[in-house]
């Protein structure tokens, strides 16, 4: 997969690198992946686009969410924020480090633990690193 595809709208679903997930999972012990496909799900319990994780309860779960990287990403951030604030779930998100967005300022900055990742991740089968830096958000 070429880097120019990551800038395009051909897909907004990027599989979390397995080694990266394994390291984070060692710390958090995830039970739910609400934004996946059956093929790339990181947890046994997961929701695909058909089940729509935005409409499902995340109650009593430790959630790993690598949401679709598109315009609807703000909806996923809002859902994670709301589920965590209600005391329903612990949520860890893998996101592009876009600190200039409204979602970052409205739902993340000052409200979640932010871990900026060094370097750039290689998503899915890509031979090239992502054209953006990433961060982990812990609600």
Could you characterize what this model shows?
- The protein is an alpha+beta fold and 139 residues long.
- The protein has a single domain (3-138), classed as Rossmann fold, CATH 3.40.50.
- 26% of the residues lie in helices and 16% in strands.
- The protein is built from 4 helices and 4 strands.
- The chain has helices at 3-7, 18-28, 73-85, 102-108; strands at residues 61-65, 89-96, 113-116, 134-138.
- The longest helix is centred in the middle third of the chain and has 13 residues, at 73-85.
Please summarize the sheet with the most strands.
4 strands, mixed
Strand order of the largest sheet: 1-2-4-3
What is the N-to-C succession of helices and strands?
HHEHEHEE
How confident is the prediction overall: mean pLDDT? 87
Shape: globular
Number of domains: 1
User: What is the fourth-level CATH superfamily?
Assistant: Vaccinia Virus protein VP39
Strand fraction equals 15-25%
What share of the residues lie within helices? 25-40%
Structural classification: alpha+beta
Return Rg in Å: 14 Å
Low-confidence stretches: 1-11
By CATH, the topology is Rossmann fold
CATH class: Alpha Beta
The appropriate CATH architecture is 3-Layer(aba) Sandwich
Q: Can you count the beta strands?
A: 4
Number of helices: 4
For the terminal residues, how far apart are their CA atoms?
Answer: 32 Å
